[in-house]
Design goal:
By secondary structure, the protein is α+β, with helices and mostly antiparallel strands. The strands form two sheets. Strands 1, 2, 3, 4, 5, 6, 7, 8 and 9 form a nine-stranded mixed sheet that branches. It has 24 helices and 15 strands. The termini are far apart. Helices cover 54% and strands 18% of the residues.
Length: 596
């Protein structure tokens, strides 16, 4: 609650949905009264469909548009689908072509005496104005909230200008996925740079007497063990021990307050049932212990064989979606709370998320967050590793004012991270990146990647960067195998666009130009700001004979990097410019329109 000048304002973070009816005036031309009545019935049906899906309510009708507010972005996304379905159904019944264009945006909404207002409402309506009929577009803020939901597809539409804003904003098309439901000798710092997670054994939902359900506890315990194994592969998450979590779960079920029996940032808990045969039904939820809010939940079926598989797709999905929700919440915390009060682990996760959005403003803001982590944890390797990664990425994206200065900074930060803790896979993954991109030393890079993977065989960043090294070494088969491993380990990772791009480079090295184009375009759909993907797509299209598509990708690349040339492409490689592949790719870029 904010007060001042005798005005009390309540501020609430909500998802705004603006649904705009397309070309309604044409529907009124023949019979205005009948048309108004049809539209009124349509709006009543649409309102019912939108508010039935979850936490939403209708705020107001504004002209031919409806504004809804939702507590959760996923409810707004489901409501958008419900609106489009309802309009199509209404069209079939009444014979009128009703279509909506929809915008979604997460923002702070102000409340004064029950009246809601704020800049977020206007931004949302302007996002909707960019949509095509039947399309839903979402802002970057909303995209971050939705990234972990496997049944949704979010396609980067690039930067767009909206009325009243001097700078363009990133928008994403929202669609539902077809087929249904991706240290040396120095002492280490004691500052917490990772999120802590406790996994409770699942409770058994059964009508059987206690003495007839003895295997209930066993199944719940096994689930917790398997989940812990799966989460142990994640960087940035520390796990509370199995026995400590089980003891805390028993205490909570006996009435104890959660925060008095366990020190964890998040708790994964839930229930299981066995409806029939060997199939189990699991309902799990992820709760923040800070405020008791459930930040993610899931309900799914799986057999014992599926759970116990060495690479269980069930647990891979659970881990991917849960970690994405954690990252989204920590990012929100870092942006809305005063910086001195933000937990260090929130700053680390926020830095990672913002760095890999590759929006220039987001990227530039990362360094101040990492600096704050370094101030709090001067003897911890993690902030030094991410600072090295930031300086390296800055040069790769063409955003550095002085490449040499960033190169030197990246080397210093990487060396400091190695001195502080050479038993972290992240430290070696970043050291390999510096060796590859800054020092032009491929053998050293590969040694670091192998070391990272010996520490943590499931480090998706190390696998992805290893793929890049193999591609630069013209070893396409090894590059593709490493890139596919990274993709398998990160079905919903914020860096997935990078993994797709590296897989495309691997295909290019193997002269699988169609595969390279498909993979590069998948990366571009997720993040158009990753310029390497545009370059690979242009090369692949040119070598496939599609000069028009190649030229379009070069045009887009040059809009973002006007100084980029074929010569810069050749200088960036640790391989000799005269190597067969480098010459082939350089000639393709030249033919597609990139200046020499």
């Amino acid at each position: 609650m904010h007060t001042g000048d005798d005005v009390a304002l309540r501020v609430e973070r909500l998802t705004v949905l603006f649904a705009d009816l397309v070309e309604s005036s044409q529907m009124l031309a023949d019979d205005e009264i009948a048309g108004v009545r049809r539209i009124a019935r349509l709006f009543a049906d649409v309102t019912g469909a939108a508010t039935d899906v979850g936490s939403g309510r209708l705020l107001e009708r504004r002209g031919d548009g409806l504004i809804f507010l939702f507590r959760h972005a996923i409810d707004a996304a489901n409501a958008a689908s419900a609106i489009h379905r309802t309009a199509a159904s209404f069209d079939a019944v009444n014979g009128s072509a009703f279509v909506f264009r929809i915008g979604l945006h997460c923002a702070n909404v102000l409340d004064h005496d029950g009246v809601r207002f704020g800049l977020g409402l206007s931004i949302c309506s302007r996002i909707a104005s960019l949509a095509l009929p039947g399309q839903s577009l979402v802002s970057t803020e909303c995209r971050d909230e939705l990234a972990g939901f496997a049944h949704l597809t979010l396609v980067d539409k690039g930067r767009c200008y909206i009325k009243g804003a001097s700078d363009p904003i990133r928008v994403f098309e929202l669609a539902r996925r077809q087929g249904g439901m991706a240290a040396g000798s120095l002492p280490k710092s004691q500052v917490q740079t990772s999120v802590t997670l406790a996994v409770f054994p699942l409770s058994h939902l059964s009508l059987a007497p206690a003495n007839e359900s003895q295997n209930g506890a066993a199944v719940g315990d096994v689930y917790a063990d398997l989940a812990l194994q799966a989460f142990s592969r994640c960087t940035g998450i520390e796990l509370i021990s199995r026995l400590s979590s089980a003891a805390a779960a028993r205490a909570v079920r006996s009435g104890a307050q959660l925060t008095t029996v366990i020190s964890a940032d998040y708790v994964l808990s839930g229930t299981w049932q066995q409806p029939a045969g060997d199939e189990y039904r699991f309902a799990v939820e992820l709760m923040s212990t800070v405020d008791g809010r459930v930040v993610w939940h899931d309900s799914a079926r799986a057999t014992a064989v599926e759970l116990l598989a060495p690479e269980s797709q069930y647990f891979l999905r659970i881990v991917s979606e849960a970690t994405h929700r954690i990252a989204g919440r920590e990012l929100e915390t870092s942006r809305t709370a005063p910086l001195p009060t933000v937990p260090t682990h929130s700053l680390v996760l926020s830095s990672i998320s913002l760095m890999h959005r590759l929006g220039r403003d987001d990227f530039d803001s990362v360094l101040s967050l990492i600096e704050r982590v370094a101030e709090r944890a001067p003897r911890h390797a993690v902030p030094h590793a991410w600072r090295a990664r930031w300086h390296t990425f800055r040069v790769v994206q063409g955003w550095a004012h002085h490449d040499q200065r960033d190169h030197e900074q990246a080397k210093r930060e990487s060396e400091m991270a190695l001195a502080l803790d050479d038993e972290l896979s992240l430290v070696h993954a970043v050291a390999g990146s510096v060796a590859m991109s800054v020092k032009r030393d491929l053998p050293a890079a590969l040694r670091h990647y192998e070391r990272a993977l010996s520490i943590n065989p499931s480090d998706s960043l190390a696998w992805a960067l290893k793929a890049a090294a193999h591609a630069l070494d013209d070893d396409g088969a090894a590059a593709l195998a490493a890139a596919d491993r990274a993709l398998t380990l990160s079905p919903h990772d914020p860096m997935r666009f990078l993994h797709e791009s590296l897989a495309a480079s691997a295909c290019l090295t193997m002269h699988d130009f169609a595969g390279a184009r498909n993979r590069a375009e998948a990366s571009i759909r997720s993040n158009r700001a990753h310029y390497s993907s545009l370059r690979v797509a242009a090369i692949a299209c040119e070598l496939l004979g599609d000069h028009g598509a190649a030229a379009r990708y070069i045009d887009e690349l040059r809009r973002e990097q006007p100084q980029y040339t074929v010569g810069a492409f050749l200088r960036a490689s640790p391989k000799p410019a005269a190597s067969d592949n480098r010459k082939l790719f350089a000639d393709a870029l030249l033919a597609a329109g990139l200046p020499a």
